Amino acid sequence: MDFSFTEEQEKFRKEVRDFLEEELRKGVFRKSVDAWILEESPELGRHVAERGWIGMTWPREYGGQGRGYLDRLIFFEEIMSYGAPMDFLTGDRQIGPALIAYGSEEQKRYFLPKIINMEVRFCIGMSEPEAGSDLASVQTKAVEEADSFIINGQKVWTSRAHLADYIYLLARTNFDPSVPKHRGLSDLIVDLKTPGITMNRVVDMTGGRRWNEVFFDNVRVPKSALVGQKDRGFIQHMSILDYERAGIERLMANYLLLTGITEYVKQTERNGAPLSKQEWVRHLLSDLFIKFEVGKLLIYRVAWLLDQKDIVATEKTALSKATCIAKAYGTKFEQEVDRAAARISGPYSQLMKGSIWAPLDGVVSMAYLYSPAHTIQAGTHEILLNVIATRGLGLPTS
User: Fold this and answer.
1) Which of 69, 237, 379, 395 has its CA 20 to 30 A from that of 21?
2) pTM for this model (two decimals)
3) Do both 185 and 66 map to the same domain?
4) Is residue 90 domain-shared with residue 30, that is, in the same domain?
5) CA-CA distance, 311 to 245, in Å (whole number)?
6) DSSP 388
7) What CATH code is carried by the domain that includes residue 77?
8) DSSP 154-194
9) Which of 86, 120, 154 is the last residue before a domain boundary?
10) How far is residue 21's CA from residue 323's CA, in Å, rounded to a whole number?
11) Are residues 33 and 157 in the same domain?
């Protein structure tokens, strides 16, 4: 692996930075911790699309640029460092790669250009009330009837469903009890305007309303909605999770909190001296910045692996192992940042946005409350460690 970027890549990084500075100046977005999932700015998304930065790794024949994953990583690293919203992330990160790998030619030609141009937005329907980490236990049913599937069931924790046009749905299509649970699921693309779909917003403990419950009551979709092979949805989803788990967003979601608390200790006095003069504060922050650099290298490696088509094709577990390591490391790091910010700010860390005494205008308290989610989203920490043990270290499954 080459640890240096090319001259062209460094020019691209500067181009992205200049673009984001101009968008900030024009008020298109505001910097925010966890903005990639908490905030939205359709205008920023449209401007990113105009630059050709959505689906940049996708084949040119479908509107992409055929660029490498390191180029894509540069773009997302910069946009995360600016705390910018990413309404286009799900389409770019998961749906596009899924359709390229498993979709029909008709699905690719219809959806990929629309995702690239921000004409459609997707959400993903995986988790259910009784099926979170145990995705094979999904119970939402898609029953074949003539030329259609009839869908009944419920999804929960569906992020940004209220803003989406389509849901990429995992549903049970094989009901033979002798068939292993994970071999009876299929992927379907469902238009969220289809009759029989209702949605409730879920409010989390931070007060955020980014999640949804989605209910399906005799929802009829054509069989052309099937993505890939029937009853192979679980396996297809596992490959898609490699893209979701190892992006730079799993390390940099609260990057602005890390830099913000660093400035806070320089400007805040305790016992007549800046907090930055206290040895334990300096050690805590220096430790975090070292860990941040290590996390970046793990994620850079995943991007490099994705560009090595021969390695991914011949060593299929290499990518899965690398993505799980990167995600497990990155999300634990994010929790460390949240805890460190709360420890440094002391009792003031409990104050919410709006209080004149709240550190960083309440960002510390919000980040700390959201912190447990980091190691649950896209696979719990324990699941990731199991994958690393079995696929990475070759340990027995039981």
Assistant:
1) 69
2) 0.91
3) no
4) yes
5) 19
6) I
7) 1.10.540.10
8) EE-S-TTGGG-SEEEEEEE----TTS-GGGSEEEEEEETTS
9) 120
10) 31
11) no
For 77-102, how does the pLDDT look when each residue is reduced to its tens digit (9 = 90+)? Answer: 999 999 999 989 999 999 999 999 99
Q: Is the residue at 1 inside a domain?
A: no
> Which structural domain, as residue segments, surrounds residue 106?
7-120
Based on the domain organization, do 63 and 194 belong to the same domain? no
Same-domain check for residues 259 and 365 = yes
Q: How far apart are CA 231 and CA 213, in angstroms?
A: 24
**pLDDT level of residue 32 (50, 70, 90 thresholds):** confident
Task: Give the helix ranges, DSSP H, for 51-180.
Answer: 69-81, 89-90, 96-102, 105-116
Q: Identify whether the C-beta of residue 211 lies closer than 8 Å to the C-beta of residue 204.
A: yes
Reduce the DSSP state of residue 51 to 3 states and report it: coil
> Do 252 and 386 fall within a single domain?
yes
* Residue 247 CB partners (closer than 8 Å, separation 6+): 76, 93, 299
Contact present, 281 and 265 (Cβ < 8 Å): yes
Give the model confidence (pLDDT) of 47-64 as tens digits: 999 999 999 999 999 999
According to DSSP, the residues that pair with 69 across neighbouring strands are none
Q: Give the tokens for residue 54.
A: 């959505």
- Here the tokens at position 316 are 């299929």
Domain end residue (candidates: 120, 153, 171): 120
Residue type, 319: L
DSSP E strand stretches across the chain? 122-125, 141-145, 148-155, 166-172, 185-191, 197-202, 211-222, 226-227, 269-270, 273-274
Question: Nearest Cα to 321, choosing from 246, 236, 235, 234?
Answer: 246
CA angle in degrees (0–180, nearest 5) for 302-98-156: 100
Question: Are 251 and 362 members of one domain?
Answer: yes
Residues 6+ apart with CB under 8 A from 238: 320
Q: Do 120 and 87 contact (CB within 8 A), yes or no?
A: no
Instruction: Specify the DSSP class assigned to residue 195.
Output: T
CB 349 within 8 A of CB 368: yes
Dihedral sign, Cα of residue 333, residue 29, residue 162, residue 203: positive
Compute the distance between CA of residue 213 and CA of residue 232 in angstroms, rounded to an integer.
25
253 and 374 both lie in a single domain? yes
